[in-house]
Write a structure and sequence with these properties.
The chain is built from nine helices and 14 strands. By secondary structure, it is α/β, with parallel strands linked by helices. The strands form four sheets. A six-stranded parallel beta sheet has the order 3-2-1-4-5-6, sandwiched between helices. A three-stranded antiparallel beta sheet has the order 7-10-11, with helices on one face. Strands 12-13-14 form a three-stranded antiparallel beta sheet. The longest helix is centred in the C-terminal third of the chain and has 20 residues. It is globular. It starts with a strand and ends in a 5-residue tail after the last helix. It binds 1,4,5,6-tetrahydronicotinamide adenine dinucleotide. The site of 1,4,5,6-tetrahydronicotinamide adenine dinucleotide has 35 residues, from helix 1 and helix 3.
Length: 311
Amino acid sequence: MKPKISVIGAGNVGAQCAYRLAQRGAAEVVLVDVVEGLPQGKALDMSQAGALDGFDVRVTGSNGYEATGDSQVVVITAGLARKPGMSRDDLIHKNAEIMKVVVGNAVKYSPGAVLLIVTNPLDVMTYHALRISGFPANRVLGMAPLLDAARMRYFIAQAMKAPISQVYAEVMGSHGDLMVPVPRLSTVNGKPITELMTPEQIKLIVDKTTNGGAEIVNLLKTGSAYYAPGSAAARMAEAIVKDEKIIINSCCYLTGQYGIKDVCLGVPARLGRNGVEEIIELELIGEELVKLKKAAAAVKELTNILLIPHT
Ligand code: TXD
């Protein structure tokens, strides 16, 4: 029997995530949304695409949570997305309320699941979900650094005229202005971009990566990016259900790694059946570590608006 992955929020990101999961055949997929007919309609549409795309997994839609029972991973994309002029942080109170309802139901029906948070502001919502779920920290993580790294890989590939498959990008920190792209650890064919590009070129890549989401919001005008975000969430959910043990930068609860604790922040993590199975501590130097700590302090401040510390 295939494992089950539920995706809560059948909007742009949730639908793309569900569709990628179905295409990859990683798991049975359940799509949930408050809007009547929306998850059912999208699930039906995706299932019919199986005849064309060559997949045969069960995709169902529901407005309730019974169908999500015993999911191995619950991906949470429910919430509001940014519009032009809004920061991710503007979404905090509304999305925190939605998160409370969604996490409560996810925990009730799938007490053994790993929760993969996508809703913004990502680092704050991951912490919020961890706290309200009562789950151990390894079973609640967030998707953003993988997306941010995909964006940086794209910008590097473009600048270097290199195939994107040969580009690696290291991105840590928070999903927002205090993102921490690390050029020294980002490579083309294994060579650090600091040896391949000028400081000006690198600064441009870092700026474009940090503003990658805003650039798309400004173009779309009615919402935010969803193809790459949905694919990133699907990739992480797949790594977890397949117990891949691969390293994917994720938003994780830190307990002293990098000298940071009691905050959820983007760091490299080994993902497997138990969610975050190991947090990797890279040797950051100088400004890199300063920027990471600055991001941690900012996320903590924002998190404190909503919450009491997790114990
Ligand atoms: O890197 C990242 N983490 C992100 C995060 C990248 C892209 C988008 N990011 C955030 O994900 C974005 O800022 C939003 O907070 C979420 C979802 O973005 P999306 O673009 O999918 O938004 P939509 O299309 O508006 O979809 C949200 C859906 C919509 O269908 C609502 O009806 C539903 O969420 N929704 C709910 N579903 C279930 N239960 C409740 N309570 C609920 N409330 C709203």
